[in-house]
Every structure is written in C-alpha cells, then in structure tokens.
Amino acid sequence: MITGASTGIGKVTAVALAERGFELTLVCRDPQKAEAAVAEILAKTPGAKVEVMLADLSSQESIRKLAADFKARHARLDVLVNNAGAILMERRTTVDGIEATFATNHLGYFLLTNLLLELLQASAPARIVNVSSAGHKGGKLDFDDLNHDKGYAGIRVYCDSKLANLYFTYELARRLEGTGVTVNSLHPGVVASNFGQGDGSRWFRVLMKLGKPFLRSVDKGARTSIYLASSPEVEGVSGKYFIDCKPRQSSRRSQDPEIARQLWQVSEKLTGLPASP
Ligand SMILES: NC(=O)c1ccc[n+]([C@@H]2O[C@H](COP(=O)([O-])OP(=O)(O)OC[C@H]3O[C@@H](n4cnc5c(N)ncnc54)[C@H](OP(=O)(O)O)[C@@H]3O)[C@@H](O)[C@H]2O)c1
Is 30 touching ligand 1 by the criterion CB < 6 Å? Predict the structure, then answer.
C-alpha cells in the first residue's frame, strides 16, 4: 500500500514496485489522478496488479474506512509506504477539528499504520516506510499547542510534522522489536514534484517553480522509498533514517525517546485509539 500515489514521489514509487512484481494498492483522494496513475503503471508494466482505494488522509473517518475496506479485501499486507503529505501556508482545520498539516502528515501516518498493524504483523516479514524530510531539523514540538492555535507559520508547522514522522518511526520500531515488522524513515531530497503547488502560498509556488531545474528529479527522489520498500539489503533493518539509500543520523532532538513516547500517547488520544502501555 502506498499513500499519496497519485503524483510525485508516491507515484514513481508505485511504478517501480509494480515493475518489481508487487501487487499494489494506491491510496489517493482524487479519482481522476488515481486513474491516470493506474494507466501509467499499466503502460509501463502491462498486467500489473494495481487497485485504487480513495481516502482523504486528513480525515480519521476516511482512514478508518480505508483500513477496514483494505482488511476486508486482503488477507495480508507486506509493505506500507506512508508517503502522502502536504505543506499548507494558511492554517486549516480538518473535519476532526485538528490543524490539517499535523493531522495529515503525522496523525494520518499514525492512525493508518496502527489500524493495519495486526495485518502487517500477521504478514511478517513486513515493512513500514515513513517518508519524512530533512526539514525535521527545523521542527520542535510544542505539546501545549500541537494544534497551532497560538500562531501559525506553514513551513515551521510542516517541519514539526516531519519531526513527528521520526518520533513515530523510532517509537514504533521499539514497539515492533522481535515481530518481524520493520519501520524506517527517509528524506527523499529536495524534489521537483507537485509539492506545495496546490496548497502552498503564492511565493512558495513561485520559489518551487523557479527552483525546479535545480531540484532533484522525482525519479531520483523516489529511490530511497523504493529501496526501503523492496531491497533485500534492508531486510531486518529497523528504526533508521535514510538519505540516498544510506542510514544517516537524524537530528539529536528527533532521537529523544521520552518525546517519542509522549507523542505516541497524545496521538492515541487524538485518534481515539486505546491507550497502550
Ligand atoms: N518534494 C520534496 O522536496 C520533499 C522533500 C522532503 C520530503 N518530502 C515528502 O515526500 C512526500 C511526498 O511528497 P511529494 O514531493 O511527492 O509531493 P506531491 O507531489 O505534492 O505528492 C503528495 C501526495 O500526497 C497526497 N496527499 C496530500 N494530502 C492528502 C490527503 N489529505 N489525503 C490523501 N492524499 C493526500 C497528494 O494527493 P493529491 O495529488 O490529491 O494532491 C499526493 O499524492 C511527502 O510526505 C513530503 O512531505 C518531499
């Protein structure tokens, strides 16, 4: 399963995994873009097994329905790539009343993964891949204002959400020790995708457009996701942060296990999952 597979890094990841013989579920919110992605996959890999499941990953009800429908249709899940993400220059709240960047980029990964965790464990060896960003270095979680009610700066809030991806990865890796399910995170590079084009501010869109010739291609940007999802080299490797298919140190702040545990507990409350030890 690949989230945010309609475009960008997620779509290239899907194309590559189809070429490697994976049976794919593309999670997309826009049916037309999803169909175009499927057509592209089938053009490159005729006969590829690929389905679309529509979901808005900023909505917890939509995520619950996605997980339930997936479990009703499939007896196993070998790889989950949490890739869907957004940067929002203006503060928005979701149908659940949660700030939308945090809801999509962090709680979306957290809730979907937890709802599919039993299935992943039953399918072990299995893998979870969380697309984060080097932008996590600019993040710092304020547990008194995770909803960013007090003040909002789109880039900072995005960086916080990508830092949350790392806390989530490291805490989940600790919880999954010995289960045969691995979880790793990555920075794809600064990639010439559609990132920020729909929801970024005008200046951010212009910046990304001007910068496009100097940015990494989407094909290159997807390499580490593809590697973590499929390479035998990372079998059994868990709880790491990768750049260019190599394990790297994430920021010191991101490695604080107390904050990771605290974020896990808060995320359980915010998503209505039962409290775990
Ligand atoms: N591009 C970069 O330089 C860069 C750098 C570091 C990290 N990243 C990370 O890489 C990941 C992929 O980004 P990208 O560069 O490929 O950007 P992209 O081209 O904008 O793709 C983002 C994907 O996420 C989907 N998405 C966003 N919000 C969603 C929601 N609420 N529900 C369902 N799907 C949603 C988008 O769907 P639609 O097509 O419907 O919009 C799209 O498929 C993100 O997690 C991002 O944070 C990117």
Answer: yes
